[in-house]
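ok so I'm stuck.
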Amino acid sequence: MNIGIIGSGNIGATAARLFAGAGHNIAISNSRGPETLRDLVDGIGEKARAVTVEEAVDFGEVVLVAIPLFAYETLPADRLAGKIVVDATNYYPGRDGSLDFGGRTSSEVISGHLPGARLVKAFNTMYYETLATAGSEAEESRLVLFVAGDEEEAKDVVSRLIREIGFSPVDTGSLREGGRRQQPGSPIYNTPMTEEKAHEAHSGID
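replied:
not stuck anymore, here's the structure
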């Protein structure tokens, strides 16, 4: 699969390495330009290339967004229409400032900016060092990556990618309910757990 990545920080770079290691072709971008990503893609190998944001979007069958939430309006909405978009962002007021979501989750806000995109919330609840090192081939011991979204087919695609990099996907529900369950401060945020524990944890969230 061709995967575009917007954002080359801890999560974006880690996901790029994992996806490439699973055999996927990666095009990674950031706001500073492809020339700043040469060392990263050289370290990943031939499966990765450094590109502009627009090129990453056009390249990807799936596009992972791993940028600070305050920058969500920079995402090219027209190019992302019809794409499966993985929202790995989180809202941190100290970094992102005071944002008015109007009662919506942050993923619903991003979805509103990207009409036509098939948004799935994922890759936002696990610390990047755990993501980088904790993948397992043994299914019974795999840690969980949570997914939320309003389209089952899109969640299935993202769930398959999660399995391919050695984790277990657990569906928390819609962008509204599931996205709220995955936000910082929730019982499942940044807490490594197996699938059994994950189902117990997120089912108990109001």
